[in-house]
Amino acid sequence: MREVAFIKQNKEKWLDFEQSLDRKNSKSPDELASLYIHLMNDLAYAQTYYPKSKVVQYLNGLASKAYQKIYTTKRGNKNILLYFFLEDVPSLMYKYRRYVQISFIFFFVFAAIGAISCAYDSEFARSFFGDHYVDTTLENIKNGRPMAVYEGGSAWSSFIGITENNITVGAKEFLSGIFLGLGTAYIYMYNAVMVGTFQFFFFKHNSFWESVQGIWIHGTFEIFAMIIEAAAGFIIGGSILFPKTLSRFNSFKIGIRDAFKIFASTLPFTIIAGFLEGYVTRFANDMPAILKIVIILICATTIVYYYLIYPFKLTKKLQHQHAITKI
Asked: Which residue, among 276, 283, 295, 267, has the nearest Cα to 158 in the 3D structure?
C-alpha cells in the first residue's frame, strides 16, 4: 500500500484516538487499550514500509502518549498487583514474544550441547558438579534412591538458600542484558548446558525417568523462570541494538523498564520452586509416581498458560472489544 493511501485509510482513526486522549473520561481504559493495540499494529506497519516517514514519528509519539494515559488510568482504577500480573505483564509478553521464542531456542540448543558433551566425555559432568556430588549421586543410584541428594539438611534452610541463589542468578541473567545481551547469553548458556548435562547424566546411568519425576517437581517453575529471565535480558540488549525510530537512550529506558517488569513477574514462580525443592522434592524417592506427575503437570500447565497462552488470549480479547466498539 502506498503511504498516501495508508494515511488516508487510517487518518480519522488516529485523530479520533488523539482527541480521546486529550479529553477526560472520553473512553474507558479497556477501550483505549484496545485502540492502543491497533495503533501499535499501524506503527509496526509504518516502520516496516515507510521507515523514514514523518508518519512513523507521529504514530510513535501518539503511542507513547497513549501508553502513559492508559496504564496510569488503569493502575488508578484497579488493584495494582492484579493489574500487574493479569494485564501489564501478559501485554508485555505478547509485545516481546519474539524474544521469548529466541530464549526457548537458545535453551534447547545449549541444553543439547550439555547432553552431547556428557555423552562423549565421561568427565564432563564432574567439571560442572564436582567429584563429591557425582560420586555421591552414583552411590545413591546404586542404592535405588537417585534423588537422595535432596534429602539432606533442613527443609527451611534448603528453601531459603535455593530461593536466594535462584533469584540472584535470575537477576544477573536479566541485568547482564545491558552488555548488548551478550552477558545474558553467557550466563544463560552456562546454566542451560548444566541442565542438559545434569539430565543426561541420569539417562546415562539408567535413572532418567526417576530423575524426571523428582527434579521437575521444582524444576518446571525454576527452569521456565530462567528462560523468561533470559528473554528479559535479551529485551534490554535488543533495546540498545535496535532502537528503531526512538533515540537509543529512550529505547533503552523503555526496554529496561519492560524487562524489569517481566523479571519481577518470575519471582513468585522462583519462590514456589524453592519451596517445592526444599519441602517436596526431598520426598521424591518415596512418593507415588502419579502424585509426582500430577504436581509436574500442574506446574507446567500454570506457567505455560500464564506466559505463552494467556497473553494471546488477552490480546485477542482486547482486539475483539475494539471491534465491537467500532460497530
From this structure: 276
C-alpha cell at 130: 564436582
Q: Which parts of the chain have pLDDT scores under 70? A: 22-31, 68-78, 319-327
pLDDT for 309: 97
Q: What is the SS3 assignment for 216? A: helix
Helices 182-204, 97-120: axis angle to 10 degrees equals 40
For the record, the C-alpha cell of 169 comes out as: 542468578
- In which domain, by residue range, is 232 found? 95-315
Percent helix / strand / coil, the chain, rounded to 5:
85, 0, 15
218 lies in the same domain as 270: yes
Judge if 171 and 271 occupy the same domain: yes
Q: Which amino acid is at 14?
A: W
Residues 45, 107: one domain?
no
**Do 131 and 256 share a domain, yes or no?**
yes
In a domain, residue 320? The reply is: no
Domain identity same for 120 and 227: yes
Instruction: Compute CA 311 distance to the chain's CA centroid, rounded to the nearest angstrom.
Output: 11
175 located within any domain? yes
Distance CA 2, CA 6 (A): 6
Cβ contact 319:38 at 8 Å = yes
Candidates 101, 92, 59; CA nearest to 244 is 59
